[in-house]
Design a protein that fits this description.
Blueprint lengths: L34 H15 L3 H13 L5 H13 L3 H13 L5 H6 L12 H19 L17 H13 L2 E8 L2 E6 L8 E2 L4 H15 L26 H5 L12 H4 L4 H7 L14 H15 L3 H10 L7 E3 L13 E3 L1 H12 L3 E2 L2 E2 L3 H8 L15 E3 L5 E3 L2 H9 L4 H7 L7 E2 H12 L5 H8 L5 E3 L6 E6 L3 E6 L4 E7 L7 H4 L4 H6 L13
Antiparallel strand pairs: 1-2, 1-14, 3-5, 4-5, 6-7, 8-12, 9-10, 9-11, 12-13, 13-14
Helix pairs in contact: 1-2, 1-3, 2-3, 3-4, 4-6, 8-12, 8-13, 11-12, 16-19
């Protein structure tokens, strides 16, 4: 089963013999997966995370039998059954998922959880069905429609650099890679699979920010400086009365939050959970990556627009861009999740990036104001973290480095983090490391990627320190697992990389922290060879 997001604040730095019946076309995103199914998948993931796949399987079987028969439920149940050793049941679940439109042949070919099934009779036929579903879904829902094509040569991309990028993308477990240059589609690569909806993880937050911009353009929200209390009057007093939309959008709200999202997933209403939490720091006084704050924005969008956030964005953003095949998770109370939960095709995500690169227009029509896009990703939105825009992250080409401070190490030590990995981490403490190399270096010193979550929790509230030089060249939506939408106006380039978190590569490899540098290598001249003396 695809891993549900842990939502670590690394996003700020690295700026989831059988018959062959004819399957019906996949269900379009306008039919949203039920909150009951989403909640059951979350409970199943948490059970699996605790080592009880059988319990997770039971959760999914129960919600399926109750009538919530979605592709994602069946696909997750297949993983759980396989992990429990019931390969026959796992095959049955895969067939059910295919009947509901499962369209990810690459996942069937590569997902670690399905390895015990691949030698069974009939498995190859399931892969064929998944590929057929994918091609049919693309035709039915017009995935990527409206994009002209060009070759890498016509686009002025370095072909050796492109070959290097594609090799690295495949090695890092990428599911999809898309490049647009000068407004044209240079290429899509799916590494043994086909295009399919992929969980955007925290890159979902980038779409949440666009909802606020659209509402400002409509006059339904005065500005990003509007206080939260304008929508939720119960926040009019004390520190809560000082929190503005901008604070929610740039992670400076001061709202009490943990580094991971486990507590959020245990709540029944993500918006109410945020509203009922305390503001513990003076708004604007410090940067702290905050999933609760982003979930609260979903409630604000609904209050301002009169529509659920996913419905509003479908009408105001996705429909004008021709994006029809997407899905958005909801909490048990029916609120669309803000911190993550959007699933869409990489090429359609690239269309959003292209609209932003074009200053908010698409096919000659204004979608979003250029002034809001400038606020979103043109300059730092707060003084504490130079890469923070408004739920998008600024990209700097030169001189960007990350430092692990001794203060974070000492906080982790006080909270009981093991001394052995701390000793290794002290070797790189207070030493700036180039951004592209930081994550790999950090995990190497940590010694075990599974310790990452514990370190982030135990080192809170201390963050990694960033240093940049020069102006930003662009901005990005970033999510765990190496989900990236890069918008590079300086080079008239949009690049999207997405992955399925299916265990095919280790978590640190899946992040593909070199992606931005390799994309820039497509358009920047190679360094001159040293002159012989």
């Amino acid at each position: 089963m695809s891993r549900r997001a842990l939502f670590l604040p690394l996003c700020a730095l690295l700026a989831c013999a059988h018959s062959q019946p004819t399957s019906p076309p996949p269900t379009p995103a306008s039919v949203v997966i039920s909150p009951e199914a989403t909640a059951a998948m979350t409970r199943a993931w948490m059970a699996q995370n605790e080592g009880d796949a059988a319990k997770g399987h039971a959760e999914l079987r129960q919600v399926w039998d109750a009538g919530h028969q979605f592709e994602e439920v069946a696909r997750g149940a297949a993983d759980m059954a396989a992990a429990s050793g019931d390969t026959v049941m796992a095959m049955t679940w895969l067939e059910r998922a295919l009947d509901k439109g499962l369209s990810n042949p690459g996942g069937l070919l590569h997902a670690e959880a399905l390895a015990p099934l691949r030698t069974l009779p009939g498995y190859d036929a399931l892969v064929v069905r998944a590929r057929k579903n994918a091609l049919e879904a693309r035709r039915t829902w017009g995935v990527g429609a409206g994009l002209e094509r060009s070759s890498p040569k016509e686009a002025g991309l370095s072909e050796p650099a492109l070959e290097e990028l594609l090799k690295a993308a495949e090695k890092s477990g990428s599911a999809g890679l898309v490049l647009l240059r000068h407004g044209k589609l240079v290429g899509e690569w799916y590494f043994g699979g086909e295009t399919h909806r992929i969980e955007a993880m925290s890159a979902t937050k980038g779409m949440v920010a666009l909802a606020i911009g659209l509402l400002i353009d409509e006059g339904k929200i005065p500005s990003v400086d509007t206080p939260v209390s304008a929508f939720f009057p119960e926040w009019k007093d004390g520190l809560k009365g000082k929190v503005t939309l901008k604070h929610l959008l740039n992670h400076t709200s001061g709202l009490a939050a943990k580094r991971t999202a486990f507590d959020i997933y245990e709540s029944k209403d993500f918006v109410r959970y945020a509203l009922d939490s305390e503001v513990v720091d003076e708004p604007g006084s410090k940067h702290a990556y905050n999933n609760k704050a982003t979930n609260l924005i979903a409630g604000i969008v609904e209050r301002a627009s009169g529509e659920k956030m996913d419905v509003y964005l479908a009408r105001k953003l996705f429909t004008p861009l021709g994006i029809r095949d997407f899905r958005w998770d909801k909490d048990p109370s029916g609120n669309p999740v803000g911190m993550a939960g959007l699933q869409l095709h990489p090429v359609d995500f690239a269309k959003v990036g292209q609209m932003l690169l074009q200053g908010g227009t698409w096919q000659g029509k204004r979608i979003l104001s250029a002034s809001y896009i400038q606020a979103l990703g043109g300059a730092p939105s707060q003084p504490h973290t130079p890469t923070a825009g408004l739920l998008w992250w600024l990209i700097y080409e030169e001189g960007m480095s990350v430092t692990l401070g001794t203060d974070a190490l000492e906080q982790a030590r006080r909270n009981g983090f093991p001394e052995a990995p701390l000793a290794r981490l002290r070797e790189i403490a207070d030493r700036p490391i180039p951004q592209g190399a930081f994550f790999a270096t950090f995990v190497e010193k940590l010694g075990d990627a599974s310790l990452l979550t514990a370190f982030m929790e135990k080192s809170a509230p201390h963050n990694f320190k960033q240093h940049v030089e020069g102006p930003p060249s662009g901005f990005a939506a970033i999510g765990q697992g190496g989900q990236r939408v890069l918008v590079l106006p300086k080079y008239d380039l949009v690049a999207v990389r997405m992955s399925d978190s299916d265990g095919r590569v280790p978590e640190d490899v899946l992040e593909f922290s070199e992606f931005t540098g390799k994309v820039l290598g497509l358009v920047r001249p190679a360094p001159a060879a040293p002159t012989a003396r």
